[in-house]
Amino acid sequence: LKPLGFHLAACMAEGPLIAALSAKDGESLRPVLSEVLKAEVGPIHLVQTAGERFTGGKSTPIWKLSFSARRGQRERETHLVAKWVQPSTDFRRKAYANERQFYLNAAPLVRKGCRLPHLLLSDCQEAGFCFLLDDLSVDFPLHPETLEVPEGRAALRWLAAFHARFWEADAAGSSFPAGLAPSGDYWGLSKGENEDRLAGVAGCLSASSKALKAHGAWETARSLGPRLAAAARPLDAALRRSRGFVRHRTLLHGDYKTANMFLRQLPTGAEEFEAAVVDFEFAGPGLAAVDLANFLFPDLRMNLLDVEEALLGFYHAELVERLEEA
After folding, report:
1. 84, 174, 197, 244: most buried, per Cβ within 10 A?
2. What is the pLDDT of residues 211-243, one digit of tens each?
3. Crossing angle between the packed helical segments 308-325 and 149-165, to the nearest 10 degrees
4. Where would I find the Aminoglycoside phosphotransferase domain in this sequence (predicted)?
5. Measuring CA to CA, which residue among 267, 289, 260, 322 is closest to residue 116?
């Protein structure tokens, strides 16, 4: 059940979400959920997760809410998730504020062609941010650690549709959705700890030498670390250029990796999948290639390195098709 005529106002200083989760009291949310969903809400079952299995519990834990909701004669089981984060740095606080702006101002523009959560309610307090969203895992139950080629195509199809919607959005006097960060990308040098990681780039590539040798890429890559470290700052500045029209700039997801994707297999009998995507803390303008690079490495762990060119060709064909439809 989606909310009818519900519009999110400013974050509530004394919102019900964080209060309910703090007390582990799902029942206290029944009045506000009834108002948001325009439905009669039954008893609420509230469960906290422990973080994703492939991050060893380090992912942001979420709360799952399940209950029946009735509108007139229609009743259905409803599943929502509450993402409660308590950022310890200003960088993280800005990221979650950015995610809220994405759901308010960008998500309605892209929802037709890309599956992503609906934001039903949000709190922001000293105790952190809390977002109440529909649970994508109900319709998209697959949440793999890595992707094979068919799932990779589904992820790239989603990304092409997302990029096409905002392609060169600042051309001809237009603009990107309001309120977002001036540039997207989790891995940019604006994230302070990434500056510290520059010194370790060469060592990381050396640690991957076995895989690179297996793909015949080690001789090319062995000197890449020092060269990348030397070029990182001017490259980062060029990628984050925020003034004036830039070709191939679009709205980036900013952290486009497997952990942020849910999939389902389509009922065609073939190995064909559809993707849904979450976590938009680092959404903002940037070059499309940044999302592609984040997706192809390191989260696919080089298991698609041999078909990288084919996957890039697939993304490009999907992007062109979407742009021609616009």
Report:
1. 84
2. 778 878 788 778 877 888 888 888 888 877 766
3. 40
4. 146-303
5. 260
